[in-house]
Write a structure and sequence with these properties.
It is a single chain. By secondary structure, this protein is α/β, with parallel strands linked by helices. It has one domain: Aldolase class I (TIM Barrel), CATH 3.20.20. 41% of the residues lie in helices and 15% in strands. The chain contains ten helices and eight strands. The chain has helices at 16-29, 48-55, 81-86, 97-103, 107-119, 132-136, 140-151, 181-199, 219-223, 240-255, and strands at 5-9, 38-42, 60-64, 91-94, 123-128, 163-167, 207-211, 230-233. The longest helix is centred in the last third of the chain and has 19 residues, at 181-199. The protein binds phosphoenolpyruvate. Residues 9, 11, 168, 173-174, 211-214, 232-236 line the site of phosphoenolpyruvate (PEP). Residues 9, 11, 168, 173-174, 211-214, 232-236 line the site of phosphoenolpyruvate.
Length: 256
């Protein structure tokens, strides 16, 4: 049985005082569900220390939104896996669609970032997903297959628990238009097959989560699907109350 993971991607939001208030308020509202689910807060780099100060020693883990593939050197503006570990991160998002589409990140860059992150001890949330145009022209499965195969190529995975794949259709991110549970489950089943071709039996334990306009209204239905092992939540994670509800409702739905 795969333990669900719910991760909160705060994107480029939160000043220091806001991050502290949000993290504190979320922790007050959410019970310790470690036995049943993993919960990760993923704030911007500039407030990692603030959020770390709140979640350290609790059931909530810390993650970062991006990483570079080199450890040190002349790479102005970049942050290395070791720096993220030093800042208290256990998780990192790689290949978020906003990085791919707004900042030009390629599948090959994603692959390098994943390798460097796993090597340095970070756990990875790999994001994949199709654009509206790709879906409408029926090319979405081909696109997603390519993204997964290149991202995971030549990868040494010592434990299936260190890799999470987030299926995030680009047309569903921040739009209020989520994929239906059936649609998401179908694509995520395909991602599991591709992952199985790469990692064999180990792929059964790799969590595949859904992201794209997840809210407290749709989390239960989504997590009720066999191939949906959690959620990556953007907009709805910016309020403590709604994030706490998503974690609780999602965890309950997956246990039933
Ligand atoms: C995300 O940031 O990964 C995301 C899915 O955002 P939202 O929940 O706002 O669609």
């Amino acid at each position: 049985m795969r333990k669900p993971l719910i991760a909160a991607n705060w994107k480029m939001n939160m000043l220091r005082w806001e991050a502290q208030e949000l993290a504190r308020s979320f922790l007050e509202k959410v019970p310790d569900l470690t036995a049943y689910s993993d919960v990760v807060l993923i704030p911007p780099f500039t407030v990692l220390d603030v959020v770390r100060g709140v979640v350290d020693g609790t059931h909530v883990k810390l993650g970062a939104q991006n990483v570079f593939w080199e450890e040190r050197g002349a790479f102005t503006g970049e942050i290395s896996p070791g720096m993220l570990r030093d800042a208290g991160c256990e998780w990192v998002i790689v290949g978020h669609s906003e990085r791919r589409h707004v900042l030009g990140e390629t599948d090959e860059m994603v692959n390098k970032k994943i390798k460097a992150s796993l090597d340095s001890g970070l756990n990875v949330i790999l994001c994949v997903g199709e654009t509206l145009e790709e879906r409408e022209s029926g090319k979405h499965l081909k696109r997603i297959t390519g993204q997964v195969e290149i991202a995971l190529s030549q990868l040494e995975l010592d434990s299936p628990h260190r890799l999470v794949i987030a299926y995030e259709p680009v047309w569903a991110i921040g739009t209020g238009k989520n994929a239906t549970p059936d649609e998401a489950d179908y694509v995520q089943g395909t991602i599991r097959e591709i992952t199985g071709n790469i990692f064999g039996d180990m792929a059964e334990e790799v969590r595949i989560v859904y992201g794209g306009s997840v809210t407290e209204e749709n989390i239960q239905e989504l997590i009720g699907e066999p191939n949906i092992d959690g959620a990556l939540v953007g907009g709805a994670s910016l309020q403590a109350e709604s994030l706490a509800k998503i974690v609780q409702m999602g965890t309950e739905a997956s246990v039933v």
